[in-house]
Design goal:
homodimer, alpha/beta, nicotinate phosphoribosyltransferase, TIM Barrel, 2 domains, seven-stranded antiparallel sheet, six-stranded parallel sheet, 15 helices, 20% strand
């Protein structure tokens, strides 16, 4: 899988620009392109950078096979094709580590090299960062809402089959406990889980009608009493009784996937306790989002299964990051189109925090400039790190687990308004010290 | 690419159910699973089925490699693994052709075979249909809004890198003219296009500052005067003047990517005409959705470039289809969970239309039942066709172009309320003749 070329996961105009620049001699100018978001989507108060590792991997696999070149020969001249044949990225990439928080204007990734080698990476880099960041940024809101309870990602069926794998990874990065997606388990080591669907209960229908007990017996025979039984196929009260009947009081959990989950959780908890199954957990699922997860906090729910709203970004399915040319041969460049201005120059970011660890401001300065002065009583942390140097990985790439740790640390460092679920302003301001 | 196994693009519970069913002997029961949507998303009036060809391809590639089996051995017993080793789908699939309209309850796809072979296909089939259908159903609204003008898909950067390819395909199915995505061009033959970005203009910055004319000259040298010049990097009026200056009055088109597109299109049209470039077209892009496309109908816009709103489904990023067990050994089965009821039995659909071709009703009946009586003055069309028989393709699969034709015909057959962009009820009712 990782051996595949990523060179055609891109937009045609990148190659037509390349062809024109090779012809007029500007292709070799040293450029910096910057990935940033003009705003956080949908009134969010912070974002979580995700997809960095996948983007760096896509850059490494940005090589041209014969079939790629054949396809591009439809519209590219021989010289450009010859240039692509030899291509591999040899530039530098700096940026935020995966799992880092970001805010409007944060220079999330900076790609420096010749115009030719940087311009053609635009689409695939943005696709990955925009998707994974949207999912991770949504997932952390659910993690916060769940307040320490388990969260299982189970949205694969509601999104593109490959986006599903990346979503499972991004959700885990953000603090989810597990995924249903098996490819994410294989490829990224995300813990996977799963027991049964309504179909399994319905399958156990005989000439005499439904036989929920047979389904439960079969599941327990295969998976043991620690499993989770799905109790809402027919009647929940009946389902819970049958479940404890068949499994005994050591049944691992029951899952409720429909109805008013708060009311049902209370009823089921009472019923389980009355049946002596006081250690049996309650799992709920079914159209949950961060708001309904938060609303269920006061109910006897032990863990949540989340699908659609996670993989669709709960109203913000893309992070809206852009990839803009900011520097040519050491000179800052910027476009002036209305409402789409860019700020010129290669940048880096520093985050100021109080002694308590609470962040107060992000300062964005030119990469080549002196570090900004640190106000009294604050500490400064360099957010930008080197990721690729001369096309090769710089320093040890953080693991998914390390990124997950960074997310957890980041959430703890936010001022309290930052964790509020309602729409609002970014949790901390970004200040440009670049002019 | 097409050789890859799809067997792990799935949820763990499908394999744990399989393991339990193999153990208790129910795995061989003959089952039908049905893909349908309980409702259309977001007040839409119709949906367009898309992804069918990709789903059938994914079923054909649902085979287990050694690496797949090794990964599954984490939680599956030897017998189940042995069963998977030999697996290939040998059942039957019926359903709607790709490009067909659908409504709430339409039996979009029915998968019949043993429980074992059908249950494990759930996630990958749903992922594909839910994603592609969401995009195609959004794209047709844009096609209708554009009222015959060209529509270019350019949203790759705003969605997962593989979802981008499927989105480009779905948009073309729905009637878009072209895509920026090169992998969609290679893999599916979607016409691709693209010229330049703001970066190319900014690249042409020298010691004396910006040099828009140099950028335009370079692009024309490489792509000819029929190209599209992006005129809004600095000042649009200046950009248009420079464009015609450099290219002459035969310039193909100018693109405006920011600002009030309606006002700017009018100004630019006037300016182009005054400069003698009356055949130069105007392309607009920048955060367009079906509503803004419709709003620009009265302006001198020749074609639209659409990105984010298309690939995110313009508010409806997933079609919300489900895969439900409806029949076991010839007996209808149905779950009774509140608000998630299912209707038992294998089904097919017939659509009634007036002589004029305008559809009036979709009738869903049991697959084995007599066809429903056709009311006087109406004609009936069988919507359900056979797609796979014994695991093999049944009849010639429709091409992407044929699906595109089916979409166009379908849109023409809708009652006029069906094409209204505002939220509302489905354009025609679905009636169940199954009870």
């Amino acid at each position: 899988m990782t051996a595949q070329s990523t060179a055609l996961l891109t937009d045609q105009y990148e190659y037509t620009m390349l062809a024109a620049a090779l012809k007029d001699g500007t292709a070799q100018r040293r450029c910096t392109f910057e990935v940033f978001a003009r705003k956080l989507p949908y009134g969010r108060r912070y974002g979580i950078v995700a997809g960095t590792a996948r983007a760096l991997d896509a850059i490494a696999r940005f090589r041209f096979t014969d079939d790629d070149l054949r396809s591009l020969s439809r519209f590219l001249d021989k010289e450009t094709l010859r240039w692509l044949e030899e291509f591999r990225f040899r530039g530098d990439v700096t940026g935020y580590r995966e799992g880092e928080m970001y805010f409007p204007g944060s220079p999330v990734l900076s790609v420096t090299g010749t115009f030719a080698e940087c311009v053609i990476l635009e689409t695939v880099v943005l696709s990955i960062l925009n998707h994974d960041t949207a999912i991770a940024s949504t997932a952390t809101r659910m993690v916060t809402a769940a307040d320490g309870r388990g969260l299982m990602e189970m949205g694969s069926r509601r999104t593109h089959e490959s986006a599903a794998v990346a979503s499972a990874r991004a959700a885990y990065l953000a603090g989810f406990t597990a995924t249903s997606n098996l490819e994410a388990a294989r490829q990224y080591g995300v813990p996977s889980a799963g027991t049964s669907a309504h179909a399994f209960t319905l399958l156990h229908t005989g000439a005499d009608g439904p036989d929920e007990a047979a389904a439960f017996r079969s599941q327990i025979a295969a998976l043991g009493t620690a499993t989770t039984l799905l109790v809402d196929t027919y009647d929940i009260t009946e389902g819970v009784r049958t479940a404890v009947d068949v499994a005994g009081p050591d049944l691992g959990a029951v899952r409720i996937d429909s109805g008013d989950l708060g009311v049902l959780a209370r009823q089921v908890r009472q019923q389980l306790d009355d049946l002596g199954a006081s250690r049996t957990k309650i799992v709920v699922s079914g159209d949950l989002d961060e708001y309904s997860i938060a609303a269920l906090r006061s109910e006897p729910v032990d863990s949540y299964g989340v699908g659609t709203s996670l993989v669709t970004g709960s109203g913000a399915p893309t992070a809206g990051m852009v990839y803009k040319l900011t520097e040519v041969d050491g000179r800052p460049v910027a476009k002036r189109s209305s409402s789409k201005e860019t700020r010129g120059g290669s940048k880096r970011a520093v985050r100021f925090a109080r002694d308590t660890g609470t962040v107060v401001e992000e300062v964005i300065c030119l990469a080549a400039a002196e570090p900004p002065p640190v106000p009294m009583s604050l500490t400064a942390r360099e957010v930008t790190v080197s990721l690729l140097r001369g096309g090769e990985p710089d320093a040890e790439a953080p693991t998914l687990e390390e990124g997950r740790q960074l997310v957890a640390t980041g959430l703890k460092s936010l001022p309290w308004e930052g964790l509020v679920l309602s729409h609002g302003e970014p949790a901390i301001p970004t200040r440009f010290a670049t002019e």
